[in-house]
Amino acid sequence: MHDTVFVTGGAGFIGPHVVRRLLQGGSRVVSFDNYMTGSAQALSGEGEGLEIVKGDVRDLAQVTDALVRARPNAILHLAAIHYIPYCNAHPAEAMDVNVTGTFNLLQAAKDVGVTKVVMASSAAVYPIQDEACREDAPTGPTDIYGATKVALEALGQSFAAETGIPVTSARFFNVYGPGETNPHVIPDILAQLGGDGPVKLGNMTPKRDYVHVSDIADGLVALLGSDHAEHRAYNIGTGSEHSVSELIEVLSGAVGRDIEVVSEPGRKRRLDRQHLLSDISRMREEIGWEPRYTLQDGLRELVLETVGGAS
């Protein structure tokens, strides 16, 4: 375990889950976040070993000052705009945060004694395909968000080649779980279950690889402790895919009643992948990581924490 880990986006969705694991493992953690979507309260009560710094990765001076003060052994870069509809509506902002912010962080990290960098990438770097996505396949993003993550990985690769500091790009598939900060499909369904009338959704048939945030956090901690040369990408998913219709079926069992659904044309994406599935053999074989949560267990636990489950 690293002595000090500098976590950007530490107060967002995934950040608090990883921060807690790092603190439990004995690391000192510096959380750097501008609270665009997260909240300082997400890290409240974590106790000793945690320093919270408010700052923005788009501000090179702020990032540099925070890194010089922290002198971390490792960096975990989670800060990003990752809600695809928002990225599509604000492409310049998405580029500024996801690409310029990453460039600033890596520039500032060159001379502070960092020995490992792990960055949040995404399955959105992959092209549309029916088979499981492998890390050695060519990238081919279909939206601005995916394009920013391809750029992030390229920056990480050039940083590693220049400095000799190993960089890991963790390609997340569809993350869900407690504390989510964007209205993706699962939190959207759960929010609608608290109201009257049917659940309104868009496309029902596309299949996704839904991975629990706790498994993501465990994977990131494992990657921080991994040893490899220069830049390497790893998928973090489950190796199983499910449609929105299947999500509804599982959630119906969790809440103990049938969920009525209406598919609205206005909610349907013009271009939507039919499949987005991870091949996790690299994580399993090289890192020794495997997901612990099935979709059924993860959704059942999430329902109990939010809307209440079946009696």
In one word, what is the shape?
A: globular
The helix/strand class is: alpha/beta
The low-pLDDT segments are: none
**What are the secondary-structure elements, in order, as H or E?**
EHEEHEHHEHEEHEEEHEEHEEHH
The share of residues in extended strands comes to 15-25%
Output the CATH homologous superfamily of the largest domain. NAD(P)-binding Rossmann-like Domain
Number of helices: 10
Average per-residue pLDDT, rounded, comes to 94
Task: Report the sheet with the most strands, covering strand number, pairing sense and barrel closure.
Answer: 7 strands, parallel
Architecture of the largest domain in CATH?
3-Layer(aba) Sandwich
The total tally of domains equals 2
Number of strands: 14
Helix content: 25-40%
If you compute it from the alpha carbons, what radius of gyration comes out, rounded to the nearest whole angstrom? Answer: 19 Å
Measure the end-to-end span.
42 Å
CATH topology of the largest domain: Rossmann fold
Oligomeric state of the chains present here: single chain
User: What is the highest CATH level, the class of the largest domain?
Assistant: Alpha Beta
Question: How would you characterize the overall build of this protein?
Answer:
The protein has 311 residues and is of the alpha/beta class. The protein folds into 2 domains: 4-175 and 210-236, Rossmann fold; 178-209 and 239-277 and 293-306, UDP-galactose 4-epimerase, domain 1 (Alpha-Beta Complex), CATH 3.90.25. It has helices spanning 15-24, 60-70, 84-89, 91-108, 144-163, 185-193, 213-224, 244-255, 281-287, 295-306; strands spanning 4-8, 28-33, 50-54, 74-77, 116-122, 167-172, 174-176, 199-201, 207-208, 210-212, 231-236, 242-243, 261-263, 275-276. The chain has a 7-stranded parallel β-sheet with strand order 3-2-1-4-5-6-11, sandwiched between helices. A 3-stranded mixed β-sheet has the order 12-9-14. Strands 7-10 form a two-stranded parallel ribbon. Helix 1 packs across helix 7 (213-224), helix 2 (60-70) runs parallel beside helix 4 and helix 4 runs parallel beside helix 5. The chain is globular, with a radius of gyration of 19 Å.
